Amino acid sequence: MDPVPALDEPLKKVLGPATAKVMAEHLGLHTVGDLLHHYPRRYEERGQLTHLADLPMDEHVTVVAQVADARLHTFASAKAPRGKGQRLEVTITDGSGRLQLVFFGAGVHKPHKDLLPGTRALFAGKVSVFNRRLQLAHPAYELLRGDAEETVETWAGALIPIYPATAKLESWKIGKALQTVLPSAQEAVDPLPESLRTGRGLAALPEALLKIHRPHTKADVEDARARLKWDEAFVLQVALARRRHADAQLPAVARRPKPDGLLAAFDDRLPFTLTEGQRKVSAEIFADLATEHPMHRLLQGEVGSGKTLVALRAMLAVVDAGGQAAMLAPTEVLAQQHHRSVTEMMGELAEGGMLGGADDATKVVLLTGSMGAAARRHALLDLATGEAGVVIGTHALIEDKVQFHDLGLVVVDEQHRFGVEQRDALRGKGKQPPHLLVMTATPIPRTVAMTVFGDLETSVLDQLPAGRSPIASHVVPAADKPHFLARAWERVREEVANGHQAYVVCPRIGDEEDDPKKAGRKKPAEDEAEKRPPLAVLDIAEQLAKGPLRGLRVEVLHGRMQPDDKDAVMRRFAAGEADVLVATTVIEVGVNVPNATAMVIMDADRFGVSQLHQLRGRVGRGSAPGLCLLVTEMPEASAARQRLNAVASTLDGFELSRIDLEQRREGDVLGQAQSGTRSSLRMLAVIEDEEIIAEARQEAAAVVAADPDLTNLPALRTALDALLDEEREQYLEKG
C-alpha cells in the first residue's frame, strides 16, 4: 500500500482526534494541506525592545528584564469570598527602571513557578497604570536560557500570525498546530509551471508557505502573499480556460439570419436607429451565432441601454435560421412585461399563423406558472410543433413537460437570479447545445466578470439611447431633517401636476406573512433606525393616500398579489390611470413606463447598492428628466449613509458595483460561482488584484491551448482537483 502523501495526511493522525474534530467542524480543515493553506489574517508585532524607563502608555511593548522580586497575595473578592483569591506581583528591572507585573486567579501557578528572583526573560504585554504605577497585566513571557542574545533578537522582532479562529479554537492554538505541520510544507507540490514561476520571479510554494506562517520580516509576508495570490488566480483561471476550451469542442447549429427575412423586416419597422453600442454588440453576437460551437456570452448593459432590443434581434436571427429562441425572466411581472414589449415592437411580425400576420411572421408565446390550463396547453403545443419561434417565460420553461421543436438560443435575463441548475436544464432542451446569451443590468467590474464568469465572453452596452434623460438623485435624511421628507412628497405632487407619474418603493409588503425575521443583534451605532421593522407597502400606501398625497390616485403592487391583479395594476399604471405606484422591488427589473419621472425609495439603506441603481433605472425612461429620492433615518456618519451618498453621486453602474464590492468583499460575489460553498479565494481580493487576475487569465489560456488535459503538468492537475471538488466541478460544467 502506498504511503499517504504528507499533505493528504488526515489532521486526526497528526494533531489528535479532539483538535482535528474542531478544525473539521468549525473551519472546514481536514488534512495537513488544508491547514497549511489556512493563512494568517494579520500579524501582531511584539514590538521593538523597550527600556523600562521609556515605557509608553497603552501600547504593546516587549522588554528584556530580570526578576527582582515575586510575591503571592491572597484576597477576598466576589468570586472568591473566603479570601481564596490569588494575585502574583512580580517586579522586574533592566537597569534603567523597574516595572510591576501582575497575574490573577488560576493564571498565577505557572509564573509563580517560572519567575523566580534572578531569572532573565522577555516580557510582552500592554502597558497600563494601577495605583499610579505602570504595570503589565498577564504578560506573555519567554525565559531566556543559553544563547540569550539570539533569543532576544528573534523573539522580540517576531511577527505573530493571527489566524481566522473560532470560539472553540483560539488563534494561538491554530498557530501551535501549524508549527507541528509546517515541516510538511517542504513536500508541497508546486502547481505553477516552472517557466511561469521563474519568469515572474515568484517564490517556490514550500518557501511561500514557510514565510506566510513564520515570517521574520514584513518583506517575507509580502513575498509569500504575492506567490499565494498567483496560485489562486492561476488555478481558478485554468479551470475556466479548460471549460471554455471544452465548450469550444461542442457542436452547435450555426444560425445565420436570411438577408431578407424576419430580422430585416423587424429592423425596417424600428422607429429609431440603433446606437453605435447596440450595433457593435449585435455584430459580436451574430458572429458567435454563425459558428458551429455554442455561444456563451454575457451582455452587460446599463439600466435602459437597450439590452432587450439587442437580445430580441438575436432571437429573431435564430428564428430566421429555422430555430426557436427562449427568454428566461426571473419573475412573472417581468416575463409579462417582456412579452408585452416584444409583441408591441414586432407588431404583425409576432402574429405568425394569424389573420393579418406578416408573411415572415412568427408566433411569440408566454409561458408562466400561473397560466390557465387551456392557455398553457396551447403554448406547449406551439413550442413542440415549432409554430412559436419565440417563447418568453419564467421557471415554468424548465419543467419536464416543456418540449421544443428546435431550440437554438437561450437568453437569460438577470443572470444573478438564476441557479446554474436552472440554466442547465433549459440548455438541455435543445437537440444540440443551444447558444446562450446571459443579460444583466447590474454592471460587474471587469475583474469580477473575469473571475466569476470567466467562461463567458463579455459584451458591454454603456451608451444610453438618444432621448433618454438624466436622473437627479438625492439623499433625504428623514431623521435629521424631517422637513426634507415633507418636501419630497411636495416634489411628487409637482411631478403629477405636470402630467407625470411616480413610484414609491418600500422594503416589505406589510401583511402578516412577511413579518421580518428578527435579524441577529444589530450594532448600536446604526441606532434606532435599524431597530424598527422596515417600512411596508401597505402601511405607507395608506398613510400617503390619507396624508401628503391625498387626492392622487395611489395603487399598490407587490409579489404576493394574484398574477392577474399584478398585471392589471401594471397595465393601469402604464396607461396613466394611476398617479403613484407604491411597490416592493417587484418593479426593480425591466418595468418600463416612460411617463414615470419620480421615485421615492423608503428605508433606502435597507437595499444594496446595485439594487438601488436598478430601481433608479425605472425613472427617466422618457424625454422628461428623472428624480430619485433616497429616504433614510441613518445618522450622517454611518456606513449606510456613505453608501447612499455614493449612489446619489454617480449614475455609472460600473463605478457603483466597484464601491459595492469593496464594501462587501467578493465572498458574496464568488459565492454564486461556487454553489454557495465557502469562497475558495483566501488570499486574492478581486478588486485589488485586478492585474494578477488579468495576467493569470492570459497565462492560463496559453497553458490550456498547448495542453488541454494538463498531461505534462501533473502538479497543476492535482491543484485543480483540490480547488474543484466534485460539486464545484459539476457547477463549472453546467455554467
Q: What attributes does this structure have?
A:
735 residues, alpha/beta, 7-stranded parallel β-sheet, disordered C terminus
The value of Rg in angstroms is 32 Å
Helical amount among residues, as a percent range? 25-40%
User: How many helices?
Assistant: 27
Distance between the termini: 38 Å
Q: What spatial form do the alpha-carbon principal axes imply? A: globular
Helix/strand-derived category reads alpha/beta
Structure description:
- This protein is of the alpha/beta class.
- It is 40% helix and 18% strand.
- The strands form four sheets. A seven-stranded parallel sheet has the order 11-12-10-13-14-9-15, with helices on both faces.
- Strand 11, helix 14 and strand 12 form a beta-alpha-beta unit.
- The radius of gyration is 32 Å and the shape is globular.
- The chain starts with 10 loop residues before the first helix and ends with a helix.
- 41% of the residues are buried.
- The C terminus is likely disordered.
Task: Summarize it.
The chain is 40% helix and 18% strand. It is α/β, with parallel strands linked by helices and 735 residues long.
Task: Please specify the SSE layout and strand pairing.
Blueprint: H1 11-15, H2 17-27, H3 32-36, E1 42-45, E2 60-75, E3 85-93, E4 98-104, H4 109-114, E5 120-130, E6 133-137, E7 140-143, H5 148-157, E8 159-162, H6 171-181, H7 194-199, H8 205-213, H9 218-249, H10 262-269, H11 276-289, E9 296-301, H12 307-320, E10 324-328, H13 332-346, E11 363-367, H14 373-385, E12 388-393, E13 407-413, H15 420-427, E14 435-440, H16 446-452, E15 457-461, E16 471-477, H17 482-497, E17 501-505, H18 527-531, H19 537-546, E18 554-557, H20 563-574, E19 580-583, E20 596-601, H21 609-616, E21 626-632, H22 639-649, H23 653-664, H24 667-673, H25 690-706, H26 714-723, H27 726-734
Parallel strand pairs: 4-6, 9-14, 9-15, 10-12, 10-13, 11-12, 13-14, 16-21, 17-19, 17-20, 18-19, 20-21
Antiparallel strand pairs: 1-8, 2-3, 2-5, 3-4, 5-6, 5-7
Helix pairs in contact: 8-9, 9-25, 9-26, 10-12, 11-12
